[in-house]
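User: Can you recover a sequence for this backbone? Please restate the input before giving your answer.

Assistant: Of course. Working from this structure:
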C-alpha cells in the first residue's frame, strides 16, 4: 500500500478578528499576571507599602481571576486607582467563543504585544509584532475537565497533520499569557482554581518556550497538581532534557506518529534534527515517579501509518520504555488536504488491539469539538495570512513497508 502527503490546498477562511483598541505598539504598563510572588512584590513596592496587600493582589489575580483592578474590592479605592494608572492585569481578551455540540468550548483570545516585566519569561516578540491571536479549548467530560492551552502564537515546526503549522510561526507567549488562558476560561465558565487537568497541546511547541511554560507552571501548580498537567512535544531533545532536570515535573507526551524515521521526517521535519533513536534515548533519561508513564501520541492516517505491521514496528520501537500509547485518528481539515483522513473505526480498533496483544497499554483519543475546529491539530492563528507548507521540506512520504498489508 502506498501513500503520499497531499499537495497544499488553499487556506480555509477564518472569522474576522477585531484589531481592538491596542494597535501595534507595546502596552507601556507592565502586566502583573503570571509574576511570581517575589517579582510582584518588587514591582509593586513603589505603590504598595504593606506586604499583606501584595498577597491580596496576587490572590485576586491568580485565585479569583480578576480581569480589572476595579474588581479588587478588598483594596482601598485609591490603591486600585494607583494600580490601574501604572500597571495592567494582562488577562487575554475573548474575541470569540465557539461551543461544540459535545460540550467542548473553543476560545479565540487576543493578547497584547508584551512589555516588561513578564516578557522575561518568554523572550522578546518579533520586531514590530502586534498583539497576537491564540486559541485554547475547554473540554468537559463528565466529572473530568481538561483545558488545552497554547504556548506560542503559531508554530514553526510545520508538522504536516497540524493546522497550526500551516499558519506558520508566531512569537513565544509570556508566562502571564499562558496562565491567562487558564484564568480566562475559568472566569468564563465560573470555575474554581483547581479540579481540572491541563494539557499543553494547543498552538506551538512548549519545549521551544520553556521559560514561559515554566513561569506559568510555577503559578498554576500552587493549586493544580503536577500529575494533572501534561506537556506534549514534537520531540525537542534539549527541552526534554531541561525539563528532566526540574525538581518537579509534569507528565510528558511525545508526538511520535510513525515507527520509522523516513515516514516521521515526511510528517514532521523536526525529525531530521532529532531522529527517533535520539528521542527514545531522551525519554529513557526522563525521571518518572512511581505509577507514572510516558505518553506516546500516534496519529493514525489512512493508508499511511495504520497497518498492523506498523503497530508491530511501534511496539518494537517502544520496548523497554515505561510508556502508554494514545492513538489519535487524524482530524481532517480543509487546509490539510483530502488524503489526510483517518482510518475507519474497524482499522483503528484493530491497531489498538494489536498493540494490546503485544503487551502495551493503548487507548484511542475520542474526537471532541471537531464541529467547531477545536479537535486535536485544528487550532489556527487567525488575524494573519497562513504561510502554508513549504515545498521541498514536505515531499511525499514513502508508503508503509511492503509487508504491512
Amino acid at each position: 500500500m502506498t501513500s503520499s502527503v497531499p499537495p497544499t490546498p488553499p487556506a480555509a477562511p477564518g472569522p474576522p478578528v477585531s484589531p481592538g483598541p491596542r494597535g501595534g505598539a507595546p502596552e507601556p504598563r507592565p502586566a502583573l499576571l503570571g509574576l511570581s510572588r517575589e517579582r510582584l512584590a518588587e514591582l509593586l513596592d513603589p505603590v504598595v507599602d504593606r506586604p499583606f496587600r501584595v498577597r491580596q493582589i496576587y490572590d485576586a489575580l491568580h485565585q479569583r481571576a480578576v480581569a480589572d483592578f476595579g474588581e479588587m474590592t478588598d483594596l482601598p479605592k485609591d490603591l486600585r486607582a494607583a494600580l490601574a494608572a501604572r500597571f495592567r492585569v494582562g488577562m487575554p481578551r475573548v474575541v470569540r467563543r465557539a461551543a461544540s455540540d459535545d460540550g467542548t468550548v473553543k476560545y479565540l483570545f487576543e493578547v497584547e504585544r508584551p512589555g516588561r516585566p513578564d516578557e522575561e519569561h518568554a523572550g522578546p516578540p518579533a520586531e514590530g509584532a502586534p498583539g497576537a491571536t491564540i486559541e485554547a479549548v475547554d473540554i468537559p467530560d463528565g466529572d473530568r475537565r481538561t483545558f488545552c492551552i497554547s504556548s506560542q502564537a503559531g508554530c514553526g515546526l510545520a508538522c504536516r497533520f497540524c493546522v497550526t503549522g500551516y499558519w506558520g510561526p508566531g512569537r513565544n507567549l509570556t508566562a502571564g499569557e499562558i496562565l491567562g488562558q487558564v484564568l480566562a476560561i475559568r472566569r468564563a465558565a465560573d470555575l474554581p482554581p483547581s479540579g481540572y487537568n491541563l494539557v499543553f497541546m494547543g498552538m506551538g511547541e512548549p519545549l521551544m518556550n520553556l521559560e514561559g511554560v515554566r513561569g506559568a507552571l510555577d503559578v498554576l501548580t500552587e493549586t493544580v497538581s503536577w500529575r494533572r498537567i501534561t506537556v506534549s512535544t514534537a520531540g525537542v531533545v534539549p527541552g526534554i532534557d531541561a525539563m528532566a532536570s526540574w525538581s518537579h515535573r509534569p507528565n510528558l507526551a511525545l508526538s511520535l506518529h510513525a515507527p520509522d524515521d523516513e515516514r516521521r521526517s515526511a510528517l514532521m521535519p523536526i525529525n531530521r534534527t532529532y531522529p527517533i533513536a535520539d528521542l527514545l534515548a531522551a525519554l529513557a533519561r526522563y525521571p518518572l515517579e512511581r505509577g507514572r508513564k510516558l505518553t506516546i501520541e500516534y496519529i493514525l492516517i489512512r493508508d499511511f501509518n495504520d497497518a498492523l505491521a506498523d503497530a508491530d514496528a511501534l511496539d518494537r520501537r517502544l520496548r523497554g520504555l515505561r510508556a502508554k500509547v494514545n492513538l489519535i485518528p487524524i482530524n481532517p481539515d480543509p487546509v490539510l488536504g483530502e488524503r489526510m483522513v483517518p482510518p475507519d473505526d474497524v482499522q483503528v480498533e484493530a491497531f489498538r488491539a494489536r498493540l494490546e496483544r503485544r503487551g502495551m497499554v493503548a487507548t484511542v483519543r475520542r474526537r471532541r469539538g471537531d464541529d467547531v475546529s477545536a479537535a486535536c491539530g485544528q487550532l489556527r492563528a487567525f488575524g494573519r495570512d497562513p504561510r502554508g507548507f513549504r515545498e521541498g521540506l514536505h515531499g511525499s512520504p514513502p508508503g508503509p513497508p511492503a509487508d504491512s498489508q
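That completes the design. The radius of gyration is 22 Å.
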